[in-house]
Each structure stands twice: as C-alpha cells, then as structure tokens.
Amino acid sequence: MFRNTDNIYKYSSSLQTFIAIFMFTSRTVFRQKIHKHFFFSTKIPFSVSAFDTKTGLRVAVKKLSRPFQSIIHAKRTYRELRLLKHMKHENVIGLLDVFTPAKSLEEFNDVYLVTHLMGADLNNIVKCQKLTDDHVQFLIYQILRGLKYIHSADIIHRDLKPSNLAVNEDCELKVMQSEGPIGLTVI
Question: Where are the alpha helices (DSSP H) in the chain?
Fold first, then answer.
C-alpha cells in the first residue's frame, strides 16, 4: 500500500494514482518524480521513482501511454520490451517488471516498465564535476563490459553517447537504450 500520501489519490479498491497520471498496484510505493534520464534514455514525459515492497528495491517506473495506438508505436513498444527483457547484465539497463493497471482489454491504455533506479546520466555528471583518472578508467571499463554483452547478443547500440549512460552514486554504470527509433538494433 502507498505510504507516501503527497499528491496521491485513491483510484479504486486495488489501484492508486499519482496526480491522475500514474497508477500502481499495492506493490509499489511512490517516492518522487525523476529526471528523464534517470533510468531510460528515452525522453520520458512520465517517470517516477518508487519503492518495490516485494523486492525491497528502489525502482524507476516509466509510463508508456497508448503504446499500441498505431502500427509504428506498437513496433517500437514491442522492440523496446523485447530488447529490455533480454538484457541481463550489470552494465546494461534491463527490465525488472512490466505491468498495466487495466482489469480488462477495454481499459487497456497504458503499460508501465520497471527498472533499476539510476542517479544521473554521464553527460550531467561530466558537466557538474571533474572526474579523476580512476573514475574515468572505471567508467570506461564498465562501458566496454556493457557493450561486449550487447554485441554478444548481436545487437548494435546506434547512439552511444554520455546521455545514454546511466551512473549511480556508487559509480556503477549502465548502458541505456537510445531515444526513439535509433537505439538498439538487432543484426
């Protein structure tokens, strides 16, 4: 059940909503809105950090609104879900969970993607502070490990740049998929 009551309103007996935009099951506890690059590299209009009461993890939740509104949107959604589902490496953003609050097909409009919460993207970090040589070496090592994993799955990252690299407060890095249709490509 939600424990943080700021800007949270009861939606129905089993669902909660955050400012009528986000609906969660009782498994997640809303924490705060997060910056668009905290967990996925796509420009996220609706994303929040949350606490998963089942796993005990702080997570990021991305809302895909009307992901199947057209064939193009459906293909992008399917590609994102398929690739994220199979990414299971400590240096690559992967999918922890997918859910919808809809109880029937008629109510089905939104899909929520859950992944690990990251602190910032590398682009924001290098703008704010100077990195030591040790930090640079460790970050490059993690980038190469993530890319090796992605390439071993016959996937090419077509937009690798600092804003597509998520870093947390422990200097752990994860390669994120790119914005829009560019992103990851299966070869």
Answer: 71-86, 122-128, 133-152
Pick from 102, 108, 17, 93: which is nearest to 59 by CA? Answer: 93
Q: Tell me: the pLDDT tens digits for 59-100?
A: 888 888 888 889 998 888 888 888 888 889 999 998 888 888
3-state helix, strand, coil in the chain (%, to 5): 25, 30, 45
Superfamily of domain 8-186, CATH level 4: Phosphorylase Kinase; domain 1 (3.30.200.20)
154 noted as active-site residue: no
Q: Are 48 and 34 in contact (CB under 8 A)?
A: yes
Banded model confidence at residue 131, pLDDT cuts 50, 70, 90: very high
State the Cα–Cα distance between residues 65 and 63, nearest whole angstrom: 6
- What is the model's pTM? 0.70
Tell me which of 52, 110, 159, 170 is the catalytic residue.
Answer: 159
Q: What are phi and psi of 29, to 5 degrees?
A: -115, 120
Domain ranges for the chain: 8-186
Q: Looking at this protein, which amino acid is placed at residue 42?
A: T
